[in-house]
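Anyone? Bumping this.
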Amino acid sequence: MSLIAITQVLRLRWRDNDGAETFSLLNIGASVDYVSALSWLADFYGLSVPMSTALVIGADLLVRYAENTNITSVEASDTRRQGVFIFGESPDGLAVVRLPSILESVLMTSGPYAGIEIDQSLPAVAAFVAALTNGIGGVIPCDPMAIDLGDLATAYMQRVAG
Amino acid sequence: MALALKPTISLVFSFRDNDNKSSTMEVLIPGATAPASGLTYALALAPLAAALVDSTLTGFNMVVGYSEAGALVIGSSDVENKGVFLLTAANAIKSMVTLPSPLESILQGNNIDIDYSNADVSDFIDAITLGLGGVQPVNAGGSDITGVYDGYKQNRRSHVNSRQRKG
């Protein structure tokens, strides 16, 4: 079992004058290089716009990877049980990463926050947090304003509806 | 009107539990990141995230996005009317591409069938069936698109933003 590249998708996002939105999707090969893929995205946009009365409000290249085998998750798994990792310091600089179906074994086992707080001393947790705060290979995650996440402020388990 | 690169690239990891419920983890990286570097990062982060969950990591998307940077001025249009192009592929599996709110001028006199002789339409079809710059569009299975076997206007439900939808 492993993640393999599947077809890349070119997606145009359209909106009409009533505010309704829809997509146009076109697949290109998984092995197409990104320069060519982004060039095709621009062409897809340029070829489509002259034929429509709606407006393209966005264009995306989706590089996709998928599991190549059908894996059954363990019975205890529950995507509503989420690990919440909050980064940053000032209230307007906070950012969150949510990890669905976090292992209960990475939660604190004693103290007032047992079963709630994520144990940051565990190596697997520390490695995940370091990948988000320090990055890997020069790529450092950021918040929606493209500002580095900063240090981890808190991490806990939260059950969400859905 | 012009599309501008978004400030961030989105990495969306998908997880599925034993009840077949799905959920995602989204991590953003700067928009100026080279896509190849972003992919390397995503492939490195995936096992670190998978080690902390008991659901299945079923895959991820890296979304390099552009958005309209100007004021949104939209003339009379309806994205639920779509130009539908039904496509054939080398592996004989059919697929389609849709064009929302097609101009009446690209339709035939019956206002349903798409007029392949229209220059914009033929350019669009040639690009999809012959490729551009050596890149050939494919169906979801990765097989080259080889032709268009039908094209018509059809009303198809849209992804609707209900807060803005009128009427």
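Late reply, but here is one note on the structure posted above: The mean pLDDT of chain A is 94.
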